[in-house]
Amino acid sequence: MSRKAGILLSAVFAILVILWIWTLVVPKDSISIGGSTSVDPLMQRLTNEYKKTSKESFIYASSGSQGGIKNIESNAYKMGFISKEIAADDTSISLVENGKTNGLTSDLSDENQIASYLQNTRGFGDQKHKLQIALDAIIIVYHAPTIFNEQFKERFTITIENQVVDAASEKLIKLIYDKNPTWDKIATSLTRAQPLDGDQEVIAKLANDRENQLKAFSREPGSGTRNSFEHQMKLDSDLSSTTNSSVLNSNGMMFQEMARASSFGYLSLNYLDAVKEKSDLNLLTIKANGTTYDPSQLEDFTDYPLTRPYIGLFKANLDSKLLNKIAAFIAWMVLAQKDVDSIPALQYKKEGLTPRFGLDGVEYEVNA
Which of 96, 225, 279, 343 is the most buried (most CB within 10 A)? Predict the structure, then answer.
C-alpha cells in the first residue's frame, strides 16, 4: 500500500471514529440547534437548565451566525441562531410575518397558544419563524499607551445619532480601520476637534512610542457581532472593518489578542468583567441623546446605544411534535422577562444580557 493511500485510509478511519463517538455522546432524541458564537454561552446555560426540568435535550453547536442560517436550510439544525438584526431588504431569508393576524397574542409565556400558533402556520412551508430572545450590547475596547490615556482618554469617545455614529465619529472610526493606524494620528484628530495644553508634546512622544502602531481587530465574515458593529460604525459601505485589520474568529480570540498588544476592537457584553480586570484594556465611552455611557460604570444596559438582538430562526413546516417541543422551550425561556427571580432570568443575569422576546413581529408584554 502506498503512503498516500495509507494516509487516506487513516483519515477515513478517523472520521468514522469521530462519527461513532458523536452517536454515543449525543442523545438520540436530542434536538440540534446552533449558530452564533455570541449566543452560545447563554444557550448553553439555558439548555442545560431546561433539560433538568423538562428532560428535553436541546444541543447547541457554535458555528457562527452564517452557520446558523445555512444549517437550518440544510436541516442540520432545527433552530439556527444569529446575533444581528435581519435587514428589511434582506431577501435571502423568507420570514413568517404578521404573527398577530394569524392568532398570536403578546403573551409569549403561554405554551398552549404558541403551540397552537405554530401548528396553524405549518402551511408557510420553508418560511422561517423569527424568535427574538435577547438584547446584547457591543462594547468597544482599546489597548493604548499610558501617555495617550493620560492626555486623551476623556476626549476619545464616539457619538451615536439614530443608531449610527455621527459624522465626526465616523471619521475617527475610519481612521482607526484605515491603513497603518497609529495613536498619534488618533490624538491629532482629537486635538483638532478640542485642543488642550500639552497635546502637541504628547503627540510627539506618541510618534516615538513603541506601542504607537496599533492593530485594529474585526471578526470573520458572517459574524453577527461584526455585522452589527459595521452597520452602526458606518463601515459597511466604502470601507469594511476587515479591509486592513486582523480578522479573528471569536470574541475570546479578540480579547486575548487585545490584551497582548496595542489595539482596537469590539466584544460582546459578556466580556465586560474580563476587560475590566485587565489594567491595559480600556472601554470606549459612548454619547447618545445627551447621555454619556461609560460601560465600566453601567449596571443596566437597556438604554445603551450599541445593541443588537439575539434571534432564533426555525422552519414553519417542522414536524408537529417538534414544534410543540419548541413552543414549550420558548414559553420557558420567556420566564426570564416575566419573572426576574426565575431560573431562566438568572442565566441572563450571569451573561449580562437583557431578556427581550418577540415572535414573528409580536413583542412579549409582561402584563398581557
Answer: 225
